[in-house]
Amino acid sequence: MALSEKTSLSTPLKTALEFSEALRTELRRKVNDARKVKKITPDSLPAAELKRHDEAVILLFLEEEFSLAIINLWQRAERADPWPELRAWEYPGVATLETDDQSELGESVEPLLKKGHHFVISHSGLYNVKIYLES
After folding, report:
1. What is the DSSP string of 32-60?
2. Closest by alpha carbon to 119, among 106, 102, 134, 132?
3. Which letter does DSSP use for residue 63 in this model?
4. pLDDT truncated to tens, each residue of the chain (135 aa)?
5. Is the pTM of the predicted complex or chain greater than 0.90?
6. What is the DSSP string of 67-103?
């Protein structure tokens, strides 16, 4: 069955956002620095508050580097639970989103439907996000 047959307009798309190695490294650095400034340790906050803090730092960086479409997708997506340790290689993990409205995916929808994945490069050209269809 062709990918386009599996993803008709009436079928919700389940997509995932995965950050590049360089982006994950930069996010770990940014979050670590922000935690140091605020004197936050994993033991000093409940897990949910620590996750909210980290997500706010990540969102600020994504706003600097990526288009509004990527930011909106990441904000609406479900993120790893439990939240990975800051030093974990996969931090902050893959975010997943199920959407009925393909227009939410912006320019990524056509490559997703054709190839099953799409790479979005940051404004600086240093980082990328892979958006792909989950089966």
Report:
1. HHHHHHHT--TTTS-HHHHHHHHHHHHHH
2. 132
3. H
4. 344 444 445 577 888 999 999 999 999 999 999 999 999 999 999 999 999 999 999 999 999 999 998 998 999 999 988 999 999 999 999 999 987 766 666 666 676 778 888 899 999 999 999 999 886
5. no
6. -HHHHHHHHHSB--SSPPPTTSTTTT--EEEEES-GG
